[in-house]
Give the backbone structure.
Amino acid sequence: MRIERIELLRLQLPLVHFFETSFGREEERTFILVKLYAQGLCGYGEVVADKDPLYSYETTSTAWLMLKDYFIPFLFKYSLFHPQEFSKKIKIFKGHPMAKAGLELALWDLRAKEKELPLWKMYGGVRREIPSGVSIGIQDSVSQLKERIRSFLDEGYQRIKIKIKQKWDVFPCREVRKEFPEILLQVDANGAYSIKEKEQLKRLDGFDLLMLEQPFPPYDLWDHSQLQKEMQTSLCLDESATSAEAVRKAYEMGSGRIINIKVGRVGGIEEARKIHDFSEQKSIPVWCGGMLESGIGRAHNIHLATLSNFKYPHDLSASRRYYAEDLIEPPIKITSKGTIKVPGLPGIGVVPQEDRIRKATLQKETLRPGDYS
Ligand code: OSB
Ligand code: MG
């Protein structure tokens, strides 16, 4: 299927509630939508890079530049319209996984719409409903944290994740455990610690946590392995799990026991599936992380999370948990069992609302094959 034109849109959506991690507080989300047009169909992808380089080095501006000056011209030049072929060939360019992933996701959506199949079927998924968890940012007080947890549990979420950092770790964990002795609880440090703080982290073993996500910075597989040796709680890698090769090394070093898969961080669906398959072979459970995506990016994640080795509740929550008005219809909802039903229509299976996209757009550019010849 020949792609006739590609649109890049820079969007900004206000969050319903601020989201604070060890690297700061966000009140709104900035991201890029990629739209591919071919034969009356439109494929949608989301680039999860944020306004600032805090989670990783990528930003909406670097991703825009890479897409416009490198990845899109390359796609047109070599007619890389098949997502798997695109993924293989685009590796010639180093880095910028979120920019690559956004384009690959749009190719998958387009492909699936052409075949009239939902993405989960294209991927070989094995479930129609996925377990939903919620990720709660750092709050101003422990009582506010407990209140938020209570309301999410009332909505049915199966697992609670709280963000931690120095001076907001043992105390909130102890208080939350006291109030909610039975819940599935995990914590995420977003790389805020160093190995010097090993003893402080080991105190988290007292709270029956499902996992401790990314205590150390991204390129620190070794220090993770040193902590894991001394901790009962399973470490989970997020920022460090950048590719199937990185995951293999983490496995061989014993840097953790669980992997958080994010399509943006690893550069696309192909790499995510490689990590999934390797992990399955080695009996390492994985789950699907989130980047506060709009409904478009989240729908993509939901389809991926139907694969067999996704074993824990995901950071995939209802539309209303993130945005007053999500970009899709129907919005993503939580069932009374704390699950999300996998959309059944072709492609991402939900319908992007163009009027809402327009309202949230800060910048738009259209690219055609002829622009580069
Ligand atoms: O580390 O998992 C993370 C959001 C932005 C950047 C990094 C992370 C997160 C989350 C939110 O935890 C997960 C979600 O989308 O619900
Ligand atoms: Mg994380």
Q: What stands out?
A: The longest strand covers residues 5-21. The domain at 121-348 is CATH 3.20.20.120 (TIM Barrel). The first helix runs from residue 60 to 77.
